[in-house]
Design a protein that fits this description.
The protein is of the alpha/beta class and 318 residues long. The chain is built from 14 helices and 9 strands. The protein starts with 8 loop residues before the first strand and ends in a 15-residue tail after the last helix. The mean pLDDT is 91.
């Protein structure tokens, strides 16, 4: 067991078949201007050779190899192994800018009500998301942001630092969620804690072939975010009435979006189920009624009709 109690940060890096990138990630950690951290690398059953990458770093890293169980489980193991008052996350194929921890510790020391601090992120991708995330979508506000997060959550995990006390109150990453487990945790934290935003690019997210973000289907993303939101409803009984109402509206919206997507695909029965769920959660305007009616039409007849245009929301709006 590592003893990191004398350090401010535990840096948790899950690694699954990312040996070609792991050295870059680690170098960015050890290039930090703020030095009070200890690094935990959780090899989640990789079939490449991360041990060879880790060897030159010696005792600056605590590493453990285990059977593959997913990134949520790997992060949770890193949290449990560590003791530092703050936990910073970095994926093995991403990297930090040198002042990341320095800028974030200033914010955390300044206000004990802050449970989560995150920053802007540079997306290194081959599509229109390349570049500063905040430049593309706007800089979000700080403070009590639960309702904002329900509509748009721009917290990329490599930018996030969590106060350990939060885990004692809201729990760890939900390992039952195949994707969106980070979004689920940020919502649970935001339900009871202040969230701080640093409007600077402090991390680089590399979109690599075979990564989870690249291999997750739209159907899976749409259905999983509903599960993630419903879990927040169950896991946070202390939600205030206005938060609970906002969460119900958000769940209704997600069910409606998923049902609309399924209708476009011709999966009418499944579409009707999702639209009905949206109505049960309180979405009662003309749109779900119209989509529900369209779901009973033969697909060829539906395909010839002008469509009710709805943007498909995959949950994160990233």
């Amino acid at each position: 067991m590592a003893n990191d109690t004398k350090y401010e940060f535990a840096v948790v890096i899950p690694c699954y078949n990312a040996a070609p990138y792991l050295g870059r990630a680690l170098d960015s950690v050890f290039a930090q201007t703020y030095r009070s951290f200890y690094t935990f690398v959780i090899d989640d059953g990789s079939t490449d050779d991360p041990a060879a990458v880790l060897r030159p770093y010696g005792d600056r890293i605590f590493s453990i190899r285990r059977p593959h169980a997913g990134q949520a489980s790997a992060r949770n193991q890193g949290i449990r192994l560590s003791n530092s008052p703050y936990v910073a996350f970095l994926d093995a194929d991403d990297e930090w800018l040198p002042t990341k921890l320095e800028r974030q510790i200033e914010v955390l020391h300044r206000d004990p009500r802050i449970g989560l601090v995150y920053s802007d992120c540079f997306n290194n991708a081959d599509d229109n998301t390349k570049g500063s995330h905040f430049a593309r979508v706007g800089t979000p506000g700080s403070g009590r942001v639960f309702e904002h997060f329900l509509n748009r959550c721009g917290v990329f995990t490599p930018t996030a630092v969590v106060r350990r006390e939060c885990f004692n109150h809201v729990g760890l990453f939900n390992e039952a969620l195949p994707v969106g487990e980070d979004y689920n945790l940020w919502l649970r934290i935001a339900a009871g804690w202040d969230v701080a935003v640093i409007p600077e690019v402090l991390a680089i997210r590399h979109v690599t072939p075979g990564s989870l973000s690249q291999t997750t289907s739209l159907d899976r993303a749409l259905s999983t975010v509903i599960t993630a939101f419903e879990d927040v409803m169950q896991a946070c009984p202390e939600l205030k009435p206005d938060q609970r109402r906002a969460l119900r509206r958000a769940i209704a919206k997600r069910y409606y979006g998923y049902g609309s997507h399924l209708l476009e695909k011709g999966e009418r029965r499944l579409s009707r189920e999702q639209i009905l769920q949206a109505m049960r959660y309180g979405l009662q305007d003309w749109r779900p009624i119209a989509k529900l009616a369209l779901g009973f039409l033969p697909y060829r007849a539906y395909a010839r009709l002008p469509k009710i245009k709805d943007p498909v929301d995959n949950g994160s709006k990233r």
